[in-house]
């Protein structure tokens, strides 16, 4: 970066002239075909035209943003700034002398501080042109963002002040709030839910960049019914990173040549190892149906647009980064990280600890008996309603389960406990239809049935120790 524009004689290998016209760093230059005149722009948001022979300069135009690139085409100088739009200004490229005839020119000195001092003293030149001849509008850049508590939505604000809500798992705007207060909208959209952080994000490029790193990205799960998955079982859990990767790589998977029975899957070339995926110790996903076309079946909440598709940026085997839109992937890319391929194609990924340990005791003053001994554990996303149902069944059956310390609270996806099997034989209603006859409390606060254990721990318990829940019998409604 420099404030002085310097003219060099390459044959003599020395600077023959310097032109002090800008008050800040010069970032872009463009010359006329005869190289008699030069257009310059930079951090001071101004474009100057300078006659290299007479040292005469004139302020051609000013912009609202620092100037990054200049391109002269016939009688138009195209200006690219830190804004996303491109502007075309009159330049008289064939006859630049006409610009000087409009007045306002000055003699470019040798010392840059003279131009800066003139600007501070109020004697800065007036631009020849006030408005551009052409404008190619760009997409407003994102300047502020906030990841919402559900870890699927992100609130953003762009350079024109528009506030939007994005769904990260689809890479799409789901609501445009217009020019409203970003902070007020963030408070309005607040949800008392707790989902592990499974990605990081920045907006340094003016757009949202989402970063996934294994194994941390596989820590977040959500019930399929919360994603409105048609026909999903009540307890079916979806791993957010798993389904997002399948959505991103669906075009790659469809076009990928099918390997032979003895061929090795893609190795992790970035660390210099040739790894066979079939020998990796990762378990299969809970939501993997095992079908051959599983990689091509993407849930609606994870379908990315083909009109404005996102791009994947990763490291190549040689160490250099590459970038491709997901619709441009042709299946021959061998530089995708092996863990992404294994997850998208085979449904295998490292299992993070998604359990929450807790104790379940009668509430103080409640006549209800103690139905458990020791610590229980359950998925973090398990709802309080499930805990209430568990207590009801234990009280009805009057037959405690295995009460050994650190026993597993298995009210989840695949197999039920012996209490659930017994309740079916007794003709009890399914838990979805059973009106709760108990209340679950934490810190003497009655919990909403829709709360998850993770939400209770984060917003109600607020302690590093294992969660303690209490129950009490209430009159059936």
Protein model, in words:
- By secondary structure, this protein is of the alpha+beta class.
- It folds into 4 domains: 4-136, 7 Propeller (Methylamine Dehydrogenase, Chain H), CATH 2.130.10.10; 142-211, no CATH class; 216-346, no CATH class; 355-473, Roll (Ubiquitin-like (UB roll)).
- The chain contains 9 helices and 26 strands.
- Strand 14 and strand 15 (172-178) form a beta hairpin.
- Helix 4 crosses helix 6 and helix 7 packs across helix 8 (418-425).
- The longest helix has 14 residues, at 384-397.
- The chain is elongated and about 100 Å long.
- The relative contact order is 0.08.
- Mean pLDDT is 80; it is low at 263-295 and 399-436.
Summarize the structure.
Helices cover 16% and strands 28% of the residues. With 477 residues, it is an alpha+beta fold.
What is this structure's SSE topology?
Layout (H helix, E strand, L loop, with lengths): L3 E6 L4 E7 L5 E6 L5 E6 L3 E6 L4 E7 L4 E7 L2 E6 L4 E5 L6 H4 L5 E2 L4 H9 L13 E3 L5 E6 L5 E6 L4 E5 L4 E7 L3 H7 L11 E3 L6 E3 L9 E3 L13 E3 H9 L1 H6 L55 E5 L5 E5 L12 H9 L8 E8 L13 E4 L4 H14 L20 H8 L12 E5 L2 E2 L6 H9 L5 E7 L4
Parallel strand pairs: 22-26
Antiparallel strand pairs: 1-2, 3-4, 4-5, 5-6, 6-10, 7-8, 8-9, 9-11, 12-13, 13-14, 14-15, 16-17, 18-19, 20-21, 22-23, 24-25, 24-26
